[in-house]
Write a structure and sequence with these properties.
heterodimer; A: 158 residues; alpha+beta; PH-domain like; elongated; B: 433 residues; 3 domains; seven-stranded antiparallel β-sheet; six-stranded antiparallel β-sheet; globular
Chain lengths: 158, 433
């Protein structure tokens, strides 16, 4: 992915990576425990398959997660916000401040525990839903207020 | 024309009957044998109670519904137990339709549908008002909607008179051509395929009755789709007036719709596969509105407004000149290697832009060309999938507030896509002013 060097790209908090690892780790752990249970109670082969699957999941996703985390980025330009994301499908969205109708800041239980929040931008077009996950809570609030302020100043009719 | 005071008004007394639609017909069917069949009324006691209850409910719902125009808002109040009061700012009205289904025409009433923009927007429905009132009311509402911006309100009245006579007819569609075009379009072909499959099945299989029974539903569905299209687009006429583009037509259900200038989010031209040898195309416009909102009429759901159901390329170009005077004429072809990524689409792909408008074409069998005025652009996205990355291709999507039309610059050279993304973002900002 080519990123224009002249933009001031910022990235989500590194804690996002920890959050994602935690999520995947939990899934892998559940799978592993299930594998052990199956191996002890029932068929040994089935249990081993599950254990291998858990290991595979953990290892591949670990690589993928890091790249995915690094793909996230956003840059506040003068008139619009750039958001980039995705490894397999890489996306770069341009959302003019004047087009933002409202901005959501949400935080799930895990995100809250880590002091993170997700900022979501809504425009009148359903296709253009841009979000930035894993921002530090204060940064999320700063971004929200800034976007709302700029949006107000540059608002344009439909 | 001044407002008729702050007074609340009721809908037409026959509204519940028309709104009941098929239920009304069913009730009539139930009652006819009772009344004329020589049976005593007491034998059908339960039916009568049911009919009475339905009629009472309809009457109550009519009684508690009222509307008025107040402070540039249209207010509608309804509901007996859970009172609902809705207010629709007229300044945000995108279009007003006058719809008259078959039963409504019988009773000389019409429904007014106001499409309101914005994320919270939806549809305001006045169902029903009397046929005589409908047109003047629509004109008045449109005028109020326009009045928000127009300072000169004093000499509006004579201007409006002139406006009505000045409506210039741009296009109309001969019924025969419409019928043929629908038969060889996707809808028509699907219906034909279903019919053919049923006939073959009926001939081959021994249990003919069973096939006919199971297939009946399919036939009805297919015919309904074809019929709906024909009914909606029959004698559709497009006219230009100062209030906006006026569309009216319909066979049984008449619709009249006004699309205000500057509210068009996107225009697209569709050329179905079988139309191409005939040089026909279909022109549709997309206006802002919530995506498939609940409570929208059948005709509205997920369907674009066809301003030209079928017509020649030349006529379409003429209409496009009216809708989008400054639009790209030449579309640039994608790089040759896009052939590997999208072999079926390759020959249809293209994009172009001017200072105020972007156009992109795509489609596998049919060709779809979409134009988006840059001032309507909501956001831009550049997307590169794994296959595209192998061929150094990327797509740029242009999002608007419309329902379905999105201009997508598919499978462009990666660097070209990057440039287009930033260039379009700058132009869109300039276009918004």
């Amino acid at each position: 992915m080519e990123i224009r060097p002249d933009e001031d790209w910022r990235q989500p908090d590194r804690k996002l990576l920890r959050l994602r690892r935690l999520e995947v780790g939990t899934a892998a752990a559940v799978l592993a425990i299930a594998g052990v249970v199956v191996a002890v109670t029932g068929s040994l082969a089935g249990g081993i398959v599950l254990l291998v699957a858990a290991l595979f999941l953990a290892l591949t996703l670990e690589r993928f997660l890091r790249r995915r985390f690094e793909a996230w980025g956003y840059a506040e330009r003068q008139d619009d916000l750039l958001v980039r994301r995705g490894v397999l499908f890489s996306r770069l969205s341009v959302i003019p401040y004047g087009r933002m109708q409202f901005i959501d800041v949400t935080a799930g239980p895990l995100e809250r525990a880590l002091g993170l929040a997700t900022v979501k931008m809504h425009t009148a077009a359903a296709a253009s839903d841009a979000r930035i996950p894993g921002l530090d809570r204060t940064e999320a609030e700063r971004l929200r207020d800034r976007l709302a302020e700029l949006g107000e100043a540059q608002a344009a009719g439909l | 024309m001044s407002g008729s005071g702050d007074g609340w008004q009721r809908l037409h007394p026959l509204s519940p009957v028309v709104r009941g639609g098929r239920a009304t017909i069913a009730i009539a069917v139930i009652l006819v044998p009772t009344v004329f069949g020589g049976r005593s009324l007491s034998a059908d006691y339960p039916q009568l109670v049911a009919v009475g209850a339905i009629a009472a409910l309809g009457f109550v719902s009519w009684l508690v519904t009222r509307w008025r125009v107040h402070d540039d808002d249209l207010q509608i109040e309804t509901g007996l137990i859970r009172r609902r009061s809705a207010r629709f700012p007229l300044a945000q009205v995108q279009a007003i339709d006058v719809v008259r289904p078959g039963l409504a025409r019988l009773f000389r009433v019409a429904e007014l549908r106001l499409r309101v923009g914005g994320a919270s927007g939806g549809m305001a429905r006045l169902a029903y008002v009397s046929e005589r009132e409908a047109e003047p009311l629509r004109d008045r509402l449109l005028e109020l909607a326009r009045g928000e911006r127009a300072e000169a309100a004093a000499d509006e009245a004579p201007g409006e008179e002139r406006a009505r006579t000045e409506a210039r007819v741009l296009a109309t569609v001969p019924p025969l051509r419409l019928a043929i075009s629908i038969l060889i379009s996707d809808v028509g072909l699907a219906a034909a395929a279903i019919l053919a499959a049923l006939v073959v099945a009926a001939i081959l299989s021994p249990g003919r009755a069973a096939v006919a029974g199971g297939g009946f539903l399919w036939v009805v569905t297919a015919l309904t789709l074809v019929w709906r299209r024909f009914n909606q687009e029959y004698r559709l006429t497009l006219a230009e007036s100062p209030e906006g583009l006026q569309l009216h037509g319909g066979l049984i259900a008449l619709t009249a719709e006004t699309i205000r200038p500057g509210r068009v989010q996107a225009v697209r031209m569709v050329e179905p596969f079988l139309w191409q040898p005939l040089g026909w195309c279909r022109l549709e416009v997309d206006v802002a509105g919530r995506q498939r909102a609940k409570g929208e009429g059948e005709a509205q759901r997920g369907r674009l407004r066809a301003v030209l159901p079928v017509g020649s390329r030349a006529l379409a170009e003429e209409l496009l000149d009216t809708l989008l005077p400054d639009r790209p004429r030449e579309l640039a072809a994608p790089p040759r290697r896009a052939l590997w990524k999208s072999p079926l689409r390759y020959r249809k792909l293209g994009w172009g832009r001017t200072q105020t408008c972007v156009a992109a074409s795509s489609g596998r069998l049919r060709r779809i060309t979409a134009w988006v005025p840059l001032e309507k652009v909501q956001s831009l996205r550049r997307v590169q999938g794994p296959v595209q990355r192998r061929f150094a291709l990327a797509s740029v999507h242009v999002d608007t507030a419309g329902r379905t039309v999105h201009a997508s610059l598919r499978d462009r050279d990666g660097e070209e896509a990057d440039r287009a993304l930033l260039e379009l973002a700058d132009l869109a900002r300039a276009a918004r002013g």
